[in-house]
Amino acid sequence: MASKLPELSHVKPGRILFVAGEARRASRATIKPLAATRVLLRGKRALYCVTLRPKFFRASTPEQRVETLVHELLHVSAEFDGRLHAERRHSRLPGAKFRSLLRPLVRRYLAHADPDLLSGLGHHGEMVARQWLERPTGKSSRGQAYSEKHLFLGPVQMITRRHLHS
User: Fold this and answer.
1) 6's torsion region: left (phi>0), alpha (psi -120 to 50) or beta?
2) Residue 122: what are its φ and ψ, rounded to 5°?
3) Which of 44, 65, 124, 162 lies 20 to 30 Å from 118, alpha-carbon distance?
4) Cα Rg of the chain, angstroms
């Protein structure tokens, strides 16, 4: 997505941790800045953590999954420094305004999407995903470094409502 959408060209996918996580209201995903927390993946510091919620896996179409991922990546700061974009927080850019920024990007991405990514997002059945064994929690985790030893691969059931048409 970062390579196909100029608006996301500052995003470095290898510095984002994607995990499956617990439900949080009706959201499909959330992004957490990791500027104040040290999370190392293969020796490199992760600057953001995207938590994919049960609704992402159990009640989405591939297009909705693309929209969810683009949505979360829009929150990343232009400096890609482990902070959120100040002007793209929901408190600053509520509902319809955020969607008016998001929807054209999703349409453009889907028109030229990576077939392998879309195939994976259209998967129906069991898969494995990273999950926290122990996750960083606010101020109490600031002095601690987190790494692969704080993660595990666990089963997740993907229920895809429909597949993309070729």
Assistant:
1) alpha
2) -95, 5
3) 44
4) 16
Over residues 71-108, the pLDDT tens digits come to 999 999 999 999 999 888 877 877 889 899 999 999 99
User: How many whole angstroms separate alpha carbon 95 and alpha carbon 130?
Assistant: 30
Q: What is the pLDDT of residues 126-137, one digit of tens each?
A: 999 999 998 887
Whole-model pTM: value is 0.91
Pairing status of strand 38-41 against strand 145-146: parallel
- Report whether 60 contacts 54 (CB < 8 A): no
What single letter denotes the amino acid at residue 136? Answer: P
The closest of 61, 19, 59, 56 to 41, measured between CA atoms, is 19
Separation of alpha carbons 12 and 9, rounded Å: 8
Residue 10 clears pLDDT 90, i.e. is over it: yes
* Cα(70)–Cα(59) distance, integer angstroms: 18
C-alpha–C-alpha distance, residues 51 and 76, integer Å: 14
Backbone angles phi, psi at 36, to 5 degrees: -95, 0
**Residue 7 is encoded by which pair of tokens?**
């608006």
Q: In this predicted model, what pLDDT tens digit does every residue of 13-51 receive, in sequence order?
A: 999 999 999 988 889 999 999 988 999 999 999 999 999
Residues 112/87/39/17 CA torsion (nearest 10 deg): -20
Question: What would the two tokens of residue 57 be?
Answer: 């896996």
